[in-house]
Automatic annotation (TrEMBL):
One of its GO terms (cellular component) is cytoplasm. This is dipeptidase E. The lineage of its organism: Eukaryota, Metazoa, Ecdysozoa, Arthropoda, Hexapoda. Keywords: Cytoplasm, Dipeptidase, Hydrolase, Protease, Serine protease. Pfam families: Peptidase_S51. InterPro entries: Class_I_gatase-like, Peptidase_S51.
Length: 248
């Protein structure tokens, strides 16, 4: 296990990730709340063109139009992978943005098109990866802690493994006065820890995101996050908290 961890840290020494809980936050336009961090990440790598992966939604043409709007405003060209040869597009990408939608559909399509390893290799080489919601889920070890319905069945729940833990985007706390009798999000995550193979889970509240550069990770955005580990009490983290410990 230690040898595997050391190897993972070395291969991911160049990674540049921005993992958003969501693309939309109340009171903001699409991706607006993350504008400064997105542009900072892209400017550092002198990116001019972004490869968009829209597989989480069915209407990919409409999805592309939504994504183009903010990036065009910020000075970036967006090309969608569904309009080109997928493998060639990944191999030539300057940066990758994977949008939200249904995580099971997204991961299944990545497997169907044999894109898991090519995307991972590009991230290992140092190109920026921006994920939102489902795009954040597939950046982790596996999609076991997504909130989505399994509308399709990928061959595996294992994902890109760009970070050695799982994330629960759109994490919401239980409301003390709520009359809802179903499981809370925290209870769902605890059920995941009942399985033998499980990993820490970072609950990203709306408006929060994880900024990963090599072997450092910082919580960014406008709201905090909650970290869950098996047999441990959950930990709260505020914006600007150092979460590099999760990468080791």
């Amino acid at each position: 296990m230690l040898v595997h961890s050391v190897r993972f840290i070395r291969t991911m020494a160049k990674r540049q990730l921005l993992l958003l809980s969501s693309s939309r936050v109340h009171g903001c336009e699409y991706l607006e709340f993350a504008e400064n961090d997105i542009c900072e990440l892209l400017q550092k790598s002198k990116v001019s063109k972004i490869l968009f992966i829209p597989y989480a939604l069915k209407d990919m043409d409409d999805y592309l139009r939504t994504v183009e709007k903010p990036f065009r405003k910020w000075g970036y060209k967006v090309e969608s992978i569904h309009n080109s040869n997928p493998l060639e597009a990944v191999n030539s990408a300057e940066a990758i943005f994977v949008g939200g939608g249904n995580t099971f559909r997204l991961l299944k399509t990545l497997y169907d098109l044999n894109l898991i390893d090519p995307i991972k290799k590009r991230i290992e080489a140092g190109i920026p990866y921006i994920g939102s919601s489902a795009g954040t889920n597939v950046a982790t070890i596996g999609i076991n802690t997504t909130n989505d319905m399994p509308i399709v069945y990928p061959p595996s729940f294992k994902a890109l493994n760009l970070v050695p833990f799982n994330i629960n985007p759109h994490y919401i706390d239980a409301f003390p006065d709520s009359t809802h009798m179903g499981e809370t999000r925290e209870q769902r995550i605890e059920q995941y820890f009942e399985e033998e193979e499980c990993y820490p889970v970072l609950g990203l509240r709306e408006g929060s995101m994880l900024y990963v550069q090599g072997n450092t990770a910082v919580l960014k955005g406008i709201s905090g996050a909650k970290l869950f580990k098996k047999n441990c009490e959950p930990e709260e983290f505020k914006v600007d908290s150092d979460l590099s410990c999760l990468l080791k």
